[in-house]
Structures are given as structure tokens and as C-alpha cells.
Design a protein that fits this description.
Blueprint lengths: L12 H36 L4 H10 L14 H31 L6 H14 L3 H12 L1 H10 L3 H5 L16 H9 L9 H6 L9 E5 L5 H16 L13 E4 L6 H11 L14 H4 E6 L2 E8 L7 E6 L8 H11 L6 E6 L4 H7 L3 E6 L17 E6 L3
Antiparallel strand pairs: 1-2, 2-3, 3-4, 4-5, 6-8, 7-8
Helix pairs in contact: 4-5
């Protein structure tokens, strides 16, 4: 085929016209191809859109066993919105609260909700007052500081009038001696025994060491007797000033050197003469000794022989201080300060302390005839026979 600008052998105009027509035909062909491309793009776009109906039908068929009937409401709008309504209401209230707070901070106003406005209206009707007074009462409770500032910032009537009443001149203060002032300023520190705090909390020259526990609730027969004697004296002598009583607790502590005299005397009264526990200070007194004191009076004592043997050698309470759980507390502190060890002791068969040991779990292992014959007085009411008790910890 010849090109558009070639001439055929005849050289006439007809051949040139035909070649131009063929060129126009090619342009139309190109236009036709573009139309097909547009149709292909429309077909692709159409093929990309699809429906979810087949997928939903398949899910319904797969879960058909879980549905009660065709009227099951689990996929309905009501069933779905019921679970979302609480969250929607909470979000709405939070939004209203934040908006109200922002408006109040920017303009000093506090917006009322419809519910709050209805409450104020009902309150005004119930109390027989106006809505304005009910609103002012509510504002006074919510914004008392703001209202107080508004009231105080206003000029008082006496300030606007310009007339003021002078205050009465105070009486002149009596002159103080210069020596007294200098002496007070010269004081650098006050000893505790002379301080006001010691007058409130009490002072004793003896410093209590090794305290285990403090009991403020125990009331012993001796305390009650002293109270009765004091009350009787006050009734018999009303003209005299009543004596002041210093209230003190029962203190449990470890054995200290200044306890020895009273402890030895107490054990001699309860058991027999010649008892000396001064060697207990050398065998772990923090674990093997418990002394009960009231103020500076020793009212009870309990001892282990050693931390390794854990044998209770003595457990005694002063007369008049018994039946007040003092022996129970001392035995408890001895046991807890020596954990994971068996504890043994000997006790006379008619000693009331048997009940105390039974409450703690001690069991009799041996009956010994004449165990206390070499120690007790022949006229002692206590039996010379003894039980050997053990508290097993394993």
C-alpha cells in the first residue's frame, strides 16, 4: 500500500482522494478502540461491586442450631441498641457535664439541666417559695465561695456614707520586768522532766527498756480495790482536795537488772525461799524472760531455762493481780518468741495453772510422785506430786 503522499502511476486526483479517505478510516478505528476500553473499565468496576447477602445467608445457615425460631430478636435493632443505650447515655451525660463546666469556667455561669430545673420547680412548689429563691438556695450550696466573694466585694453602706466610728483605745499593757524577759530569752532548751510535755505524758527517772507489749485495758482486783479506797476517802473527807490518780498500763518487757529484787521476792512468795534469777540475764533474756510491771511494781514474771531447752522454770503472778489474763499474756509472749520448739514444764497436780496450760495445748506426758518434796514447805497446801507437760510444735 502506498502512503498518503505518494502518487500512483496515472497521476490523477482520484488516487489522492482515496488515500485521504483511508486515513480518515484509521482515525475512526482508533476512536472505536477507545470506546472498547471504556466499556472494559465499566465491566471491571461492575465486577468489583458485590453483595454481602450470600455471606449473611451462609452465616445464618451455619448458626441455625443456635436460633430459637424465625422470630428470634438477637439480630434485631432493639436487641442491638439495648446493649448500647447505657453507654450512649453515659457519654451524653459526660458531654453535658464537660460542656457545662467549660461554660461555667469561661462565663461564671452554671447551666441547669432539664431534670435539675424540674427538681427546683417542684421544690419551690413544695416549700411555697418562688423559683428564684429556690435557685438561689441551690446556688448558695454549690457555689458558696463565689457568692461570698461577690457579697464581700461590694462596698458596705457605712463605707459609702463616709462616717466611721472610732474604736475604743485599748488599755495599756502593764510593763514587764526586764529581768524576767531576759531570763526567758536566756533559756535555750528545757529538760524533759521539767517540760510541759512531761506534765502531760508523765515522767519517770527509770527508762523502760525491752518493752514487748503495753496493755491499757486490763483491770485487776488490786486496781479496783485501790479505786474503792480512794472513793471512800473522798466521801469521808469532802473538805480535802481529792488525790490525783495517774493512769498507767500493764507493761510486758524483758528482764532488766533493776527488776531482780522484786522478781526474786515475788518468786519467793509464790514458790519457796532462795530463788535467784540473776543468771537469766546471761541467757538470752530477750527470748527467755517476760516481766509484767504496773508503773514501777513487778506484778508477774515468766522464765525459760535457755533458748535451746525451752523449759519453763517459773511462771508467777502477784497476789491481787491474778485472774486478769496477766499469766496468759506472759505465757503467750514466751511461746511466740521461741517458735518451732517443743516446750516442757512441771506443775503440781492441784495447781490451778493446769487449766491455763491446757488452753495452750500442753499435754501430760508423765506423773511424778514427790517431785516437789525437796522444795515445798511440808505445810504447803500444794501437792508434792507433779505432772510433766509438753507443748508439741512439730
Amino acid at each position: 500500500m502506498s502512503s498518503d503522499y505518494e502518487w500512483d502511476s496515472a497521476g490523477d486526483d482520484g488516487s489522492y482522494t482515496n488515500s485521504r479517505q483511508s486515513r480518515r478510516t484509521k482515525r475512526r478505528k482508533i476512536t472505536h478502540r477507545r470506546g472498547k476500553a471504556d466499556e472494559n473499565q465499566e465491566n471491571v468496576a461492575t465486577s468489583r461491586t458485590f453483595s454481602f447477602d450470600p455471606l449473611l445467608d451462609a452465616l445464618h445457615k451455619q448458626a441455625a442450631d443456635d436460633w430459637d425460631d424465625e422470630w428470634d430478636m438477637r439480630d434485631s435493632f432493639d436487641a442491638t441498641i439495648d446493649t448500647l443505650l447505657p453507654e450512649l447515655e453515659d457519654a451524653e451525660r459526660a458531654f453535658i457535664s464537660d460542656t457545662t463546666l467549660a461554660v461555667a469556667q469561661s462565663s461564671g455561669l452554671h447551666l441547669l439541666s432539664r431534670e435539675r430545673a424540674a427538681e427546683l420547680t417542684q421544690l419551690a412548689e413544695d416549700e411555697g417559695c418562688t423559683i428564684l429563691s429556690s435557685l438561689f438556695s441551690a446556688k448558695a450550696r454549690l457555689h458558696s465561695r463565689i457568692l461570698r466573694r461577690v457579697v464581700l466585694d461590694r462596698d458596705p453602706p457605712y463605707g459609702r456614707s463616709g462616717s466611721l466610728t472610732p474604736l475604743v483605745a485599748p488599755h495599756p499593757i502593764s510593763s514587764v520586768k526586764r529581768q524576767v524577759v531576759d531570763a526567758l530569752y536566756a533559756i535555750q532548751t528545757t529538760p524533759y522532766e521539767n517540760s510541759f510535755l512531761s506534765r502531760l505524758q508523765g515522767y519517770s527517772p527509770y527508762r523502760q527498756n525491752g518493752i514487748i507489749a503495753v496493755d491499757w485495758e486490763t483491770r485487776t482486783p488490786w486496781m479496783e480495790l485501790m479505786d474503792d479506797i480512794r472513793d471512800h476517802y473522798m466521801l469521808s473527807h469532802p473538805e480535802e482536795n481529792p488525790a490525783e490518780e495517774t493512769v498507767a498500763p500493764v507493761t510486758y518487757c524483758t528482764l532488766q537488772p533493776y527488776h531482780l529484787d522484786q522478781v526474786n521476792d515475788l518468786l519467793a512468795r509464790v514458790f519457796w525461799e532462795g530463788i535467784d534469777v540473776s543468771d537469766a540475764l546471761a541467757y538470752s533474756p530477750d527470748r527467755c524472760t517476760v516481766v509484767a510491771t504496773y508503773k514501777q511494781l513487778v506484778v508477774g514474771a515468766a522464765f525459760f531455762s535457755s533458748p535451746q531447752e525451752t523449759y519453763i522454770t517459773y511462771l508467777a503472778v502477784r497476789s491481787g493481780w491474778d485472774n486478769s489474763q496477766i499469766a496468759t499474756s506472759m505465757l503467750y509472749h514466751l511461746i511466740t518468741r521461741n517458735p518451732h520448739k517443743d516446750i516442757t514444764l512441771h506443775v503440781s497436780i492441784n495447781n490451778p495453772a493446769m487449766l491455763l496450760y491446757n488452753r495452750f495445748g500442753f499435754k501430760a506426758e508423765e506423773f511424778i510422785v514427790g517431785f516437789y518434796e525437796d522444795y515445798l514447805d511440808p505445810n504447803s497446801p500444794q501437792s508434792k506430786n507433779a505432772f510433766r507437760l509438753r507443748l508439741r510444735r512439730w
